[in-house]
User: Fold these one by one.
Assistant:
Number 1:
Amino acid sequence: MKYIVKIVVVLIAGVAMVSCAEKGKPNYQYMPNMYEPVGYETYGNYEVFPGQMEAMLPAEGSIPRGWQPYEYDNTNEGRDLAKAELKNPLPVTQANLDNGKKMYDIYCALCHGGQGAGQGILVKNEKILGIPSYADPGRVINDGGIYHVQMYGLNSMGSYASQTNEEERWQITMHVMNLKAALEGTPALEIVPEPEIAEGHHEEESGAEDHGNDDHDTQEDH
Amino acid sequence: MDNNITDRMEKVPYRNLPSKWSLVLFVFLLAFSVSQHTHAYTTVLPTVAVDTANGEALFKANCAACHKLYKKATGPALFEVGDKYDRDWLYKWVKNSQELVKAGDPIAVKIFEENNKSVMTAFPTLSNEDVDDIIAYTYTKKKTPVIVEAPTGAGDGGGGMSNNIILGILALVFAMLVIALFAVNKTLRRFADAQGVEIEEKEETKPIWRAFLENQFLVLVTAILLLLTAGYFAYGWMSQVGVDQGYAPVQPIHYSHRIHAGTNQIDCNYCHSSARKSKTSGIPSLNVCMNCHKSISEVAEATQLEGQNEHGVDYNAEIQKLYKAVGWDEATQAYTGETEAVEWVRIHNLPDFAYFNHSQHVTVAGVECQTCHGPVEEMEIMEQHAPLTMGWCINCHRETNVNVADNEYYEKIHAELAKKYGKDKITAAEMGGLECGKCHY
């Protein structure tokens, strides 16, 4: 009888130890005041905030650093106007195109596909269908239109203004124009030679020292 | 496990349906759907042969972004659209809807107004025959989920049940063996009693614990051993205080990283876009979810079944939770403006005395998200993969070479450090990645 009691005690202890290792709750801490900040922490839970949530929408009228007003309305007329007037302010450089491709692959390629033919992974998995090719003859795709649609979204496509900044959107625009050209078989955008841009100066110097980096290749191009 | 079984138990009534009946039902459905098709062909298109397969392909390539068959999306539902409008008018509408709207065609203007003034793209490349094919495709009947669901559910149920049954049988066999052993022992003793055989009682000797206590050397060794083991376990136990490895809280909306980042290969940066340029890799706001879920209001049938059977989650209900929180009205395809906060539970959180910057690791160093967060693309429920202790940070800084190629920012310091350490590659630690002030200030 004694043995049975002992076995039960061990079993209970074992169960208790295992059940304490619960995955749904954070572990306890040595000295919480060393862990928890005095200021409000990102995604923290504080009584001063509505709904006790630190994560809130920015105050009305607040402007993020580097933000530029976008003056075209989210209407069909605004889109037509943007198509007619807006031009890409960034110079066509390899750096801009590279980052444009990187951003495009993160945000756009899921649906529009790496080549812009509308065959992204979500289309192939039949999650989202009917994505047009950039070479679709029924559409007028130009700088202003691409930027405008990234800004506000269009029909089933949502806005990407919260995930990208102005520069990135223009870089994506540049990349999309190149994809469109490739699909239509027209020549790609002409890359502005690096030394003509103010920033290009360092790269000219470093290229001369032969570090085997990319600048070197572009030097040979022109 | 038990839950799943009861779920399935509730689902199986269809199985008890007499097979004759289901056959009749199937034939009836088949006949019905066929008659619908012929109806479409004969009434609308008496002479022209249509190619529904071509229609389906065209529909999926051109129309499906905005139109669903049985549900309003950006544009109206297209099921049996051929009955609603005149065929010639439809040709014109598809080829250039805006022309009709601008010309003041009353039907066109009405549709335009009803659908939030969304401009339908012109499709001048589609021929009248193509449009006919697409319209023929729109007569496809909605599949009744019953036929698909019942057999799959039952099949899966069989697999789960049999495992449990095997375990149960094993436990039963074990229990019977124990009982048999006791019974045999008892019977033997009874035999011994009956036959007058005396069972030898053991002689009273010095109990072993007394012998042990009298041997001081043994006591000493045991004491030391006990202390060492206790110290070992105490150290292990104390090291895990404040470490949240494996922490996987229940989130207000069940979000499967497995489906999003795994099956559909969505880049981590798509949703966690601030990881590229800020200290915190943010929990995405709901507008990011809506970028895709505006179109995806329900998951594929196979995904839904998988969720219910393997993870006990109704994915469609979770999407509805999202719609409710973000205030999306599916019927009108517009935001109502009534939003609710979603209280996501933050999982990864460093103590206040340690500084960590995502952009520095993601953008500058180019570290893969998975290096610290583990195989997120396989996680149905997100959990903390790494211990996030200082030792863990330091270890990675010691082992990781800094990628200085093509980065002129590092050019000078790399040359100097390479000279100092006499080697080609520099680890993060050698560049000062172990200095206290880098992370603690």
Number 2:
Amino acid sequence: MHIPEGLIPAQQAAAWYVPAVSFVGVGLVGLKRRLVVKPELRPLIGLMGAFVFLISLIPLPVPGLGTVSHPCGTPMAAILLGPFTATVLGSVALFLQSLFFAHGGITSWGANVIAMAVGGSFSAYGVFRVSRRAGLGIGVAAGMAGLIGDLVTYGITSFQLALALHGDEAVLNVWGAAFASFLPTQVPLAIAEALFTAGVVVFIANQRAELLEGAVVRP
Amino acid sequence: MTAISRNSDGYAWGDSFLSRIDPRVKIAGFAGLLLVNLLGGSYLVSGVIAVAMALLMIAGRIPYRRQLLMISFPASFAIFTIISQTVFMGGEVFASLGPFDLHLQGLFNGLFISLRIIAGGLIVVVLGVTTPINRLCQALRWFKAPATFIEITQLTYRYLFDIHGEFSRMRDAQQVRLGWSSARAGLASSRLLGGSLFLRVYDRGLRSSEAMRCRGSGPVVNGALPRPGKLDILAGSGAAIFISALVMLAVGVAA
């Protein structure tokens, strides 16, 4: 769920742009350094961006509602590539999706980057690392990362919507109401994203374990 | 997945007057419109922008099915906005729905924000549909956007279509094997699809990298945009006059 063009007021749109540009900027600086040292990563990063874009278009059935939704993709990207690179790829995907599908927008790009690219990537990466250090298996850790990354993304989006649309109500009340209204679809979706992320990471670990060591993909 | 092909910049390469306008002029004009739409603060300003964009789409002969498809997402959000504002915004209560009071001022505010969403969505749609991605990236580079961001955007766009075919083939094969016949099967198929796609993407990336290094290829961003022509000056002047009129309209409405 991306916030569309025109929904959030100008001041808030500008305010969300500041941290978004900061995170993407740091990610770009790191990525630029990587590409200088390892230019062979260039097409790989581009392909990963396309991969994140496509993954976020895979329809997953939402049980009981007769509809489909899609994974965020950024939790898995953060596990495989690191949170800053995943943030950059998420921001590029959001930019292209706003142009191709009118999903999201240009003035709401900052808010969407904070929710999906930054929130989804960093929370998922943090959960994955902590879970691994706690001795959990790679599948469980990836699944928890997917679950938390998805819920954090929607928690932030709900907060952004509440901030923009709270009217005369307290922001926290509207936030709670907005998040609760998304729960019927979001909890199954978060579980689906957890299973999906765990499944993909375990598949990669079984097929090509060296990719998860960080030698090439996460230098 | 066909939506990607439908929404790619195939139309943008056509011989429409909208496609021929210099992307720098379009970016500057549409950025101005987006700002006026956000800051205008009235039904009138957003309404005029929405009508103008709709007329541009008709004049540019953008297929109406594409227009409807692309505007469907902002439209669905507009409905959500009307409902949330009617419930949460204060003012006169005109009806009750279970535990919720429905407020008249909220309804009007929701309608206003919805109009702003539709107008903003239409601006982005016109920009996206009529500008090839490479020219858009060249123009963004001219506006001093970070080179690495532009490069990743171009590479992502390029490889999006590179792996699109592979993705579709794998998914079609899964469908033939009833891989998406139930929620459980769909989840298993999506796991397999995601993992296989990642590995193929990785291998293809390495091969592409080797090929690029052999050719001595560097960063993708290259080539300068031509000098603006008569059409660009005309379009830029028209956009400046239109935006100025909208600003005056917004100030007039506010006063």
Number 3:
Amino acid sequence: MTEVQTANRIPLDDYAAVIGAGEIEELRALARPLQGRRVEMVNSTAVGGGVAEMLNRLVPLAEDLGLLFRWDVITGGEDFFQVTKSFHNALHGAPYHPQPRDFDIFREYQQRNLHRLPLDVEFVIIHDPQPVGLIEDRTNGKNHWVWRCHIDLSHPNPTVWNFLHSYVSRYDGAIFSSPEFARQLPIPQYLFYPAIDPLSEKNRDLPPEFIANVLSRYQIDPLRPILTQISRFDRLKDPLGVIRAYRIVKRYFDCQLVLAGGSASDDPEGAQVLKEVHRAAEGDPDIKVLELPAWAPLEVNALQRASSIVIQKSLREGFGLTVSEALWKKKPVVASAVGGIPTQIIHKHTGLLAHSVEGTAYQIRFLLSHPEIAARLGERGHEHVKENFLITQNLKRYLTLFLSLGGAV
Amino acid sequence: METAETPFNFFTVGNLTRIGNISAMTLSELLAGLEQCSDASIFHHTFQTLSSHHFLTEGFSNDFAQWVLADANRDALAEQLAALDIRDYSSLAALRADLCQLVRDFCKLHPEFADQSALEPFYFCESIEVALPLGLTARSLDEFRVGVTHLSHSSFYFHFISSRLRLHLRTNDFSHWLADGLGLITLAENVNRIDIYTNTLDSARNKLLRLMDRERRKHDGSADREPHPAG
């Protein structure tokens, strides 16, 4: 079986406490013409990764509204996933010289999955490049096919993109996370922001005792300012740049720096970056480099909530949802103006943007000197996330898309 | 109190953003984009964006102004673009003409800035609006108040702001019905005066509710002399 059964179902009505009962009533009103209509979501994995996490939350909410949702995962051998991993990196701009055999492997597994999946429902949503070739099964005009691309296609490898383009252009529409990620296509392209779940372990309110315990466990002083960056130990997240910015700030404020990310044990480059970070942090007990377990949402939540300022000093970024996570917790954020970050951080309205180590340090100093401005940015950031980057908004966008495509209005 | 012959029908609305094929990296390109883009695009970057950023009450007005300020770094033009009040427009053609005029005049006056590259491109997008009846109607001021209280932000905005384009009038659904349906002309005018640039949607709604309460007290014979809540 390839159908995924979602876990941790949270009833839609539970979100009323967060977004208001009126919003829930309106979601139900929008969903009314869609009741009993069938949707199939297809991606390449049921666990791990942002797409699976999002579908795990979205599918139960849509079912709660009376839509008949089915979530399927394609299957493939190691050879297929090696090819799709190479495609993925190449679409992000990494060097790659595909062999004809790579495309054959890709096509072969699309065919195999075509026989396994129903794909006969009214709305078929295909996530990311791995299952994009399932469009081959489309019966002319009988149902609506939309490709949801979660990755940054702004600088794709032309050979790989040309190959995928022949599939993508046969869909009824494509969805991207940012206008910057979209391509010239002969089909309508829609903008869906990635979203966070305010009731998930990573974002829900936490008791102060729990936060205090986490700080105590990692020997972080709750009485002095805490600057935090939560991200993988990856050069593109610029952890060394964060340390340099912290050292400038440290001349003016007795602050601490927390760099927390998932374990780098299975990622050779990540392990190297982590080693460099440890070396840079050596001798300063106020820099805490935390290698968190692969899935530690409550710890991440607690560290974000305990922070005075959250930093996201990426050199390149997809959407950067950790920014929305921090804003949701009403934290002032200083972040680089790259990828999807300026969509979340409207400079001087919902946070502060910076373009260099020195700029990052200056913005942090400014916020530490003006706590009332920091608090106001945090409040507005929270409203911005509530209005634009919550899972309920994502659900509303899907409902609107189905209504728009399905002509039920 | 009066009962309207024609009820007010509350709607719910969903908005879909469609990414267009036009982008701009300079003010000249912005002008070209403004001239070529669809009405749905002008709507998206002015009316729709004000709805999704309603909580910003200091200086955020529309996407064009924000890009000119933050990415093209031209404060004076940004201020002029931000000063356009969408409530003054009942047609997108008129709004587009004024946006174009401001950018054109600026480029003519400062040709040295017209082709200067911005930090990030401006991407023209469009809004697709899907509106459905909420199944909630009102014939009296009391019923109307209940409906307004329950509306989501986007639906409140749909009735209160973007309705101007549907009505082709300098008024909104609420004021239109209060005047036409209930004959409450003064209340309708006061409601239409609530400033959505200096209020969030929540505070605008609260002002609307207070105006209605004031009207109800007047009809109950207990009108007080509290300050006027509009503005």
Number 4:
Amino acid sequence: MNKNLSYKKPLLETPFHERTSEACYNNDWYRWAGYKIAKEYSSTELEYTSMRNTAGVIDITPMHKYDIKGIEACEFVNKLVTRDISKIQPNQIMYIIWCNEDGNVIDDGTVFCLKEDHLRIMCAERNLNWFTDTATGFNVEIKDITETIAALAFQGPLSCKILNLLNVNDIENLEPFQFNNYQINNSNVLISRTGFSGDLGYEIWCDPADALNIWDSLFKFNRDYKVLPTGMNALDMVRIEAGFIQPNADFMSAEQALRPNRMRNPYELGLSWLVDLEKNYFTGKAALKKIKKKPLNKKLVGLDIEGDKPAVGSILYDRQKKEIGIVTAAMWSPTLKSNIAIGYVNKEFMKIGSTVFAEIYHPEELEYKKIWANCKVVKKQFFNPQRRYNVPADI
Amino acid sequence: MKIFDIIIIGAGPNGLAAASYLSKLGKKVLVVEKNEEVGGLAQYADSSSSLSKKVIDQLGLKISTKKKNTFVTSLNDNLNHTVLEIDENNAVKFKECEASLEDQNNFLKLVKKYNLFSKTLSSFMFNSPPRVKSGNKSDLWQLISMGWKVRKLGKKNMRELLRIIGLNIADDLEDNLINDNLMGILCNEAILGSNLGPRSPGSILTLLYSNAINGSIFRNNNLDSKQIIDSLEQSCLDRGVEFLKSSEVKKLFINNESVTGIEMNNQNTIESSTIISTLDPKTTYLNLIGADKLDTDFTRRVSNFRSKGNVAKIKLEFKNMIKIKNLDEKYIGSKFIYAPNIKYIEHAFNNNKYNKYSTKPCLEFYIDNKNISANLYYVPYLKSGSHDKKEIESNIQLILNNFIDNNQLIKFEIDTPNEIEKKYNTSGGHWHHGDMEIDQLLMIRPFYGSAQYETPINGLYLCGAGTHPGGGITGINAINASKQLLKK
């Protein structure tokens, strides 16, 4: 993979590049951890629609993968993350976040249990430095294996059906947050029932040498089921609908924020269910204990906004036009037919059902239309279909 | 089993002082020491002048000060040695010197300047350092008074202090002096025991700091370090402190971020809710507590704490009485320095940068009849492997043969930083448990999150040389830590 590294091609190409570059009509690339990833292949709306109605294929190879091996692998991860993962079983996946000593969130990710003494953490940002420093005193070996695994997210209501048509044995019985080894067109793959779309979906992890075979296989039934390669823009839309948060978009990673008041703790992000203050010591435990005793000042909530103009970057106000928050992500949701957003609100407005106001600047043919929109505070999880949880999954 | 209010780990001068102080206030104290003898690293000290008067008074120690003039002799390759006489008021006089009178006067002026500045600094030394941004009035007041002390120097002196405080010692010396030997003397005082060369930034600060702690720029030898240890131990015994010698603490028991007891190497355990560790911060946090009970950011700071020692202790025995060439016999009791010029020291430091011992090292030593006890630098701490001691021995012989009249070396002993680490459980074998540099001083000594003698673990306190005001046998660390402990 590194052979392409030169001053002429400063960005790395993933093993899928031969296909993604062909499909990317717009040549619109996004820089993710040094890799070129398509922002938009042809039309964001079309890609979004395929992900919500058939299935979308997203190249997520730049996702960082850290192998953690050793007899204390589990203890190490338990020290790293806020959640109690000591009961993790082989083939199980857990959603995790990790904090710094002040209880502020550094990043989130998933941990895969391959064996009792072999775990793997997948996350969007680089964390090797943090992991190795956390591993001081633990009998573990941490290795960045990002380049040795190619990965695709295959998300959408027909994803299971298509995998089934590809003769992936027993895929419908894979439970959410579980993974197993399968074969696609004679290539060995690891498939996990995880994803960033909030819908039925899988993530496929394979050898870079098998990458093109897997890619081509997923589009094999396109005459009947229009599967599209999907860019980052469309992925951003589905993740807002699902209420998933993203570091450095909805909150600043504590390792990267320069201003101390920009960091956020799990309670402010609405992730208190991931914090277990009863388990053994983990980084940030002492701080989180103190934070939990105090009332929250602000919280990340979902907003249901009147009208149809997305409140991108809006400031939130109360009735007296006093500033009480800010929107971090917003969109018009075609599936839900509503104008949704994720944002921070002050403590008086954290309760579900509270009313706040957004000042939306909507560009209309070179002029801004200023809209004063009524917003209702709702749960972040806007889109949450039953098929996401069904076992066996819909074929 | 006996119940102790406080367990103190390590019977160095700070451990003993803390034990004595706390038992005076009615606490039941147990001191656990790894070695058979108390004293810790202080047993290496040839000279001592830094034990604070405050400590002597508060503990009621009976220590006699040697009220006599001391000499400092700087050996010169051309045998025109420089001899300084320092009287009990720290006034410096030239006895022998090849430098011009003008140079001698400039030297005395420079010493006076450093003395003035270090006196200003010394007012920060003996109190618990203030917390910044604590919102506490007494902390704020202490910070203001620190600033005021500096301002009180007057405009000219304050500017000069602020100009030189981050500078390297070589620059300031070269600006003021011509004679190499004179520059060597002050360089030696500035960098001995630090991880700096004469041209490393901050070496003036280390000079001022050590001057402030010792009350004298040449660390003249007016106390007997053995007597200090003995009287500290005696005062502990008088107050009913119990000792557990030849027992090494293996780990601390921690429950719910609070300390509950200690486990010894022989599997014995002793419970106590208050423990003072006089070990260096790295050993305390990484070995006794374990990184798994600490925040990652914190362990990062612990591992980044610079504690690489580079001074070896050597003991030489000669066949006959030692005589120095071209030096009057009345100066034989002086402190000898072999650091002939800045270039020589800087070259010695170059080896240290690459983790090698200096092939042409610097020495500071005392002569006792047939014996020499010396501090040798640079002999850096090694993470793996060991130094060639035979080679070091012949290097030293090469140097000493120039100065010592017809004599034969019959015994050579060396304790490198690695051996010091092993013997006294100080990671890196560093004299001061950690470099005394601007980012590891005062309210950030040893590092953020562990200053003011406290630790993230409830009931555990630090009072070794790794805390403010650092190394040197002051005993201040112990008194300040005890006061901090008693506040809770």
